[in-house]
Protein backbone atom coordinates (compact mmCIF):
# COMPACT_ATOMS: atom_id res chain seq x y z
CA UNK A 1 0.00 0.00 0.00
CA UNK A 2 1.37 3.42 -0.94
CA UNK A 3 -0.31 5.31 1.86
CA UNK A 4 -1.74 8.84 2.01
CA UNK A 5 0.91 10.62 -0.10
CA UNK A 6 0.67 8.51 -3.19
CA UNK A 7 3.95 7.68 -4.87
CA UNK A 8 5.72 10.80 -3.48
CA UNK A 9 6.40 12.59 -6.80
CA UNK A 10 3.38 14.88 -6.80
CA UNK A 11 5.28 18.01 -5.73
CA UNK A 12 8.68 17.24 -7.26
CA UNK A 13 7.99 19.46 -10.27
CA UNK A 14 7.64 22.46 -7.92
CA UNK A 15 11.06 21.85 -6.34
CA UNK A 16 12.62 21.50 -9.79
CA UNK A 17 11.04 24.76 -10.93
CA UNK A 18 12.22 26.58 -7.81
CA UNK A 19 15.72 25.21 -8.32
CA UNK A 20 15.82 26.48 -11.92
CA UNK A 21 14.57 29.92 -10.86
CA UNK A 22 17.19 30.06 -8.09
CA UNK A 23 19.99 29.17 -10.51
CA UNK A 24 18.78 31.82 -12.99
CA UNK A 25 18.74 34.48 -10.26
CA UNK A 26 22.26 33.54 -9.14
CA UNK A 27 23.55 33.72 -12.72
CA UNK A 28 21.90 37.12 -13.20
CA UNK A 29 23.41 38.45 -9.99
CA UNK A 30 26.85 37.12 -10.93
CA UNK A 31 26.68 38.76 -14.36
CA UNK A 32 25.61 42.11 -12.87
CA UNK A 33 28.36 41.88 -10.25
CA UNK A 34 31.15 41.17 -12.75
CA UNK A 35 29.98 43.69 -15.36
CA UNK A 36 29.51 46.47 -12.85
CA UNK A 37 25.73 46.31 -13.09
CA UNK A 38 23.86 48.51 -15.51
CA UNK A 39 21.60 50.06 -12.88
CA UNK A 40 19.52 52.97 -14.08
CA UNK A 41 20.47 54.49 -17.37
CA UNK A 42 21.95 51.26 -18.69
CA UNK A 43 20.83 52.18 -22.20
CA UNK A 44 22.90 55.36 -22.07
CA UNK A 45 25.96 53.43 -20.89
CA UNK A 46 25.79 50.87 -23.66
CA UNK A 47 25.02 53.42 -26.37
CA UNK A 48 21.64 51.88 -27.11
CA UNK A 49 18.99 54.56 -27.27
CA UNK A 50 16.22 52.42 -25.84
CA UNK A 51 12.53 52.74 -26.66
CA UNK A 52 12.30 56.48 -25.90
CA UNK A 53 15.52 57.67 -27.47
CA UNK A 54 18.60 59.07 -25.77
CA UNK A 55 18.26 61.39 -22.80
CA UNK A 56 18.29 65.08 -23.74
CA UNK A 57 21.44 65.71 -21.74
CA UNK A 58 24.12 63.47 -20.29
CA UNK A 59 23.47 60.74 -17.76
CA UNK A 60 23.50 63.27 -14.95
CA UNK A 61 21.00 65.55 -16.71
CA UNK A 62 23.53 68.31 -17.40
CA UNK A 63 23.94 69.77 -20.91
CA UNK A 64 27.32 69.01 -22.51
CA UNK A 65 28.55 72.60 -22.16
CA UNK A 66 26.99 73.10 -18.76
CA UNK A 67 23.98 75.23 -17.96
CA UNK A 68 23.89 78.69 -19.55
CA UNK A 69 25.29 81.25 -17.14
CA UNK A 70 26.78 78.62 -14.82
CA UNK A 71 30.44 78.90 -13.94
CA UNK A 72 32.80 76.01 -14.57
CA UNK A 73 34.62 74.32 -11.71
CA UNK A 74 37.90 75.87 -12.88
CA UNK A 75 36.33 79.33 -12.85
CA UNK A 76 35.01 78.81 -9.33
CA UNK A 77 38.47 77.79 -8.11
CA UNK A 78 40.01 80.80 -9.85
CA UNK A 79 37.44 83.11 -8.22
CA UNK A 80 38.22 81.64 -4.80
CA UNK A 81 41.97 82.07 -5.25
CA UNK A 82 41.46 85.68 -6.35
CA UNK A 83 39.18 86.35 -3.37
CA UNK A 84 41.80 84.93 -0.96
CA UNK A 85 44.44 87.21 -2.46
CA UNK A 86 46.54 84.44 -3.98
CA UNK A 87 46.29 86.08 -7.43
CA UNK A 88 46.70 89.65 -8.58
CA UNK A 89 44.11 91.25 -10.82
CA UNK A 90 46.41 90.83 -13.85
CA UNK A 91 46.97 87.13 -13.08
CA UNK A 92 43.22 86.66 -12.63
CA UNK A 93 42.42 88.26 -16.00
CA UNK A 94 45.18 86.25 -17.71
CA UNK A 95 43.81 82.99 -16.29
CA UNK A 96 40.31 83.93 -17.39
CA UNK A 97 41.63 84.34 -20.93
CA UNK A 98 43.26 80.90 -20.74
CA UNK A 99 39.97 79.40 -19.58
CA UNK A 100 38.09 81.21 -22.34
CA UNK A 101 35.74 82.78 -19.79
CA UNK A 102 36.57 86.45 -20.18
CA UNK A 103 34.02 88.80 -18.67
UniProtKB/TrEMBL annotation:
<feature type="region of interest" description="Disordered">
    <location>
        <begin position="38"/>
        <end position="70"/>
    </location>
</feature>
<keyword id="KW-0812">Transmembrane</keyword>
<protein>
    <submittedName>
        <fullName>Membrane protein</fullName>
    </submittedName>
</protein>
<keyword id="KW-1133">Transmembrane helix</keyword>
<keyword id="KW-0472">Membrane</keyword>
<feature type="transmembrane region" description="Helical">
    <location>
        <begin position="12"/>
        <end position="31"/>
    </location>
</feature>
Amino acid sequence: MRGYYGDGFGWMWLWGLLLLIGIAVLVLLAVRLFTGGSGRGGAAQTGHAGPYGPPPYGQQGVPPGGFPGAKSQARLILDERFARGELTADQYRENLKVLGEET
